[in-house]
Specification:
33% strand, 5-stranded mixed sheet, alpha+beta
Amino acid sequence: MPRLRPRLRIPRPLAVTFAAVLAAVCTAGGGLGGTAPGPQTEVVVTLRGAPLSFLGREPAGAVRRASLARIDAQQAAAARRIAAAVPHSRIRWRYRIVLNGFAVVLPQHELGALARVPGVQVWPNLRYHALAVRAGSPQQIGADRLWGSDLASSGQGMKIGIIDDGLDATHPYFDPAGMRYPPGFPKGQTRYTTPKVIVQRAFAPPGAADKYARAPFDPQYSDHATHVAGIAAGDYDTLARGATLVSGVAPRAWLGNYKALSVPTPGFGLDGNSAELAAAIEAAVSDGMNVINLSLGEPEIEPSRDVVVQALEGAAAAGVVPVVAAGNDFDNFGYGTVSSPANAPDAIAVGAATSRNVIASFSSAGPTAVSLEMKPDVVAPGIGVLSSFPGAKWVTLDGTSMAAPAVSGAVALLKQRHPTWTVAELKSALEQTGAPVLSDDGAETLPEREGGGMVDLVRADNPLLFAAPTGLSFGRLGPGVSAARDATLTDAGGGAGDWTVGVDLRQGNAVVSAPPSVTVPGTLTVTATGGTDLGDDSGFVVLTRGADVRRIPFWFLTSAPRLAGERALALTRPGVYHGTTAGAPSLVTRYRYPTGGDRAYPGPERVYRIRLTGSPANAGVVVLSGHVTPHITFNGSEDHLAGYTGLPVDLNPYRDSFGLPRPVAGLVLPAHGTYDVVFDSGAAGGGPFTFRYWVDDVTPPRLKLVSTRGAIVVSAADAGAGVDPRSIGAVLDGTRVGRVAYADGKITVPARPGRHRLVLTVADYQETKNMEDIRPTLPNTATLRVTVKVT
């Protein structure tokens, strides 16, 4: 699998250059062939050549033109190869800045042919949703102290792109009075723009039939973006609820509306797919946005298979600052819950706190579950945030969705005042100067929850030094095993010279050491050594010079995994297997990450080992009989679950059983490599068990009406994950059937003699692992609609 591209430091003017040269870089349309019958799908295809943002320096005119010509020639050649191999495909979006490639719409059954085209990499099209899952003012982060009495430093000249579900530009919080379009604007659907909301674009998925799918605002479903945009850049001293004066963090900044969440989803509002999100990121960079805000996310998958993460890295390389909500899962899943795309290394991942500077109970915590990165980066107000809502309304919401735009506004203020600062320097200014965030007991919370701390714009405005990276992850270390990380320190103005170095270990008994002092500019080497206590170790490297204090958060795990020493049985092909924990060792009791949503397993465990090659969509196991519970981990370590999907929990938010324990563990869009499937038990559990193993199951069960004598009988078969009896739902003549029998591959629906209308839904076990970032909705669920006569 490909690795992340090098994260290069790009001079600030590069994003402006891109905007001027590539005014139409992200365009819809461009056919390869005609539309074929049957289910269509959309994927992102990238090519081997680097996109424009990764040139590494601002190119001269001739070099720039040559680079564009190179990219265009590569894409044209690839399009010809695709047209020959997949005649019924067509190009949907083109990417040249943050990615080198395009989105392709094609018949679903021809995905294999597309993947075999030489020189292309096919990325899955994931689905994302807004993160405001629950129903901070500028003063809390010191924004008002940067504005000045005449508001001269309140975001003028800055452009904040809101990549979300579409904002209501007519809201009073975005009154354009006193503002003018910057040169080159408005852009997009200009009939909807104003001198405040200067870009209006919509990114509808292929085949979208909803009335407002291609409009930049949906009066029925759009609401999240309006609230988010108000927090970032709502007008100064706007009257809310008749008596309250409110302001966005950067009230004089311009807004760009990029509606990439446009798929109506029952119970969830508008969702969006990664092809459209990547197109929105590409357009925002091309349009010249300085900051892009993504208050959206899904559980982390392997980053090398996540094209939105790649696009955000490209945006950062182009000089545009990505700010992303960290997620709202701590209440349910504990540590290891920072979501995608907040896991993008160069993005600023934002957690949430209360107005009393106490960490929000729901605010997701690091490390990132799959990649084990040190996230989040900072924290901002995310509880009881009053902001705009469509229809000239005002509402108060909670969530990291509300914290992220406060940081987007903060970045805009800093970038206005310090136009030469790079993306990495802006991130460091915020993270190294953060204020401590408290836990409920009044003590400072852990770095895994607060990153560098609560944004403090007064201190960030004068950071003295920059650190790269801004936070340190040492990953997993064995007891007594050491690893070193370097932090490059540069002068941010007034910070040159000697600083005293100390280590504040907030949890664990590991040894973290650094030289007693460091000279800025210079390199600080920090060494971590696993302690005798197994578990998380985290804290801050503290730099002090007189009254000035700057902190670099760090995290690692002291780990001595017992799975590595256990005998593992090989699973080489899908099927049904019989096993037993009788006589097996009892070495593992807990699994991570995430750390929540699970229980202890003090009984014996049996380990199987699988090796995945290629790019499978998924893999998994389900316990069919016996008293064991499955988990899937990275090879040999119970301390590194394969993310959320490795837990025995129903993760599908579209099902009534979401969050409930199920004896199913899986992998979604995994990297190729070796994984352990562990069947564990309670103190009195264990013994014989039966399980099914599958790989790459992307089809629902097959349903067929077989009898109407005395009842309605339907056969249900699934050669992959197998039919999940608990998923069966039947509606007969508009009324849900309470009891439906399932045995020997047949579903029996009781019905009296006469004519009936039956709607039957059946899923396989893979559906329990399909998070909301798997599209389409409920892909492993079949629906049968029939009118029958029961005799």
